[in-house]
From TrEMBL:
Matches recorded under Gene3D superfamilies: P-loop containing nucleotide triphosphate hydrolases
Single GO BP term: transmembrane transport
PANTHER family according to UniProt: ABC TRANSPORTER I FAMILY MEMBER 10
PROSITE patterns: ABC_TRANSPORTER_1, ABC_TRANSPORTER_2
UniProt-recorded name of the protein: Probable ATP-dependent transporter ycf16
Keyword list, A-Z: ATP-binding, Nucleotide-binding, Transport
Alphabetized InterPro entries for the sequence: AAA+_ATPase, ABC_transporter-like_ATP-bd, ABC_transporter-like_CS, ABC_transpr_CbiO/EcfA_su, Molybdenum_import_ModC, P-loop_NTPase
Organism the protein comes from: Galdieria yellowstonensis
Gene Ontology annotations for the cellular component aspect, listed alphabetically: chloroplast envelope; membrane
GO terms, molecular function: ATP binding; ATP hydrolysis activity
All residue ranges annotated as the ABC transporter domain in the record: 66-278
């Protein structure tokens, strides 16, 4: 907590901490990573490390949105989670990742995002890359909606900050919540605020890890339509993790993961019911 505070109040320290960190990086998910990445990673701090290896010999076939090449990752020596995942997502494509509980979807998201380093293989993403976590509380760092936005816009004047923040909130239908406290928002509102604040950073890639998990069916549909509209406007490469069959019809493409490997990669219409069964 003290560390997080130092990082927020001292961006210059951040560079040092971040560049020292990857060598000792423990495979943990932490608010430290979230705070760094959400507020300051508009350049590829972690991406540099995930591109090490033989990347100079392998180049993406398409313009890079997300390029994942033979990625392996284990949380422990005995239990590999990702066992050679490869795919690429071009800009403008809305790609969904499916898989049963524990199949490694969240781990893959964090490897692509750069907060976990693959043990083998590499990831290349267009920058900046933004990640929306499954739990709404993990996406918002500050106590008020206003401060959540103001922090993303540190180089703008006060008037410009408010104007940009309000405009972003308007796009997600929540301008009236500008002065609200974050802890008073519903799960769906928090996810909308999170998307709006991240879009202010002009990401090229948006990763959403089961973003609708806390929503009812109608909010889920509204949210997915909203994100689709916003990303189409900005031509983002999108990776949307889900295990909800009803969400798949919104995808341009589906990738199904099972036991750490890709077992389906193609059009949503060709997916069979068995692709959704929990093995
Ligand atoms: N921080 C961690 N430390 C150790 N093991 C972990 C950690 N996070 C995940 N794992 C393990 O890695 C495996 C994959 O987990 P992950 O969360 O990536 O799966 P998932 O497909 O996203 O699951 P879900 O659909 O339930 O969210 C699981 O066996 C899980 O127990």
């Amino acid at each position: 907590m003290i560390l997080s505070f130092q990082v927020i109040s001292s961006p210059s320290l951040l560079g040092v901490s971040t560049f020292l960190k990857p060598r000792n990086l423990e495979p943990t998910r932490s608010r430290f990573n979230l705070i760094i990445s959400k507020r300051y990673c508009t350049f590829p701090i972690f991406g540099v490390y995930s591109q090490l290896g033989n990347s100079q010999y392998l180049t993406p076939k398409e313009e890079v949105g997300i390029f994942v090449c033979d990625v392996h990752f284990s949380w422990s020596r005995t239990r590999p989670v990702l066992k050679g995942i490869s795919f690429q997502v071009p800009p403008g494509q809305f790609c969904m990742i499916l898989g049963s509980n524990g199949s490694g979807k969240s781990t893959l998201c964090e490897v692509i995002y750069g907060s976990l380093i693959p043990h083998k293989g590499f990831v290349k993403t267009a920058k900046p890359t933004a990640l929306i976590y499954q739990s709404p509380d993990d996406n918002l760092v500050f106590p008020t909606v206003e401060s959540e936005f103001i922090c993303c816009l540190r180089n703008e004047t006060e008037e410009k900050k408010e104007e940009m923040a309000r405009s972003a909130l308007r796009k997600v239908g929540l301008e009236h919540l500008y002065y609200s406290r974050v802890d008073g928002l519903s799960g769906g509102e928090k996810q909308r605020v999170a998307v709006a604040s991240l879009l202010l950073l002009n990401p090229a890639v948006l990763i959403l890890d089961e973003p609708t998990a806390s929503m009812d069916a109608s909010s889920r549909e509204d949210f997915i339509r909203l994100v689709k509209t916003l990303v189409a406007e900005k031509n983002l490469a999108v990776l949307w993790v889900t295990h909800l069959q009803e969400e798949q019809r919104y995808a341009d493409r589906l990738i199904r993961i099972h036991s750490g490997k890709v077992i389906y990669d193609g059009e949503p219409t060709k997916v069979t019911t068995s692709c959704f069964q929990v093995e």
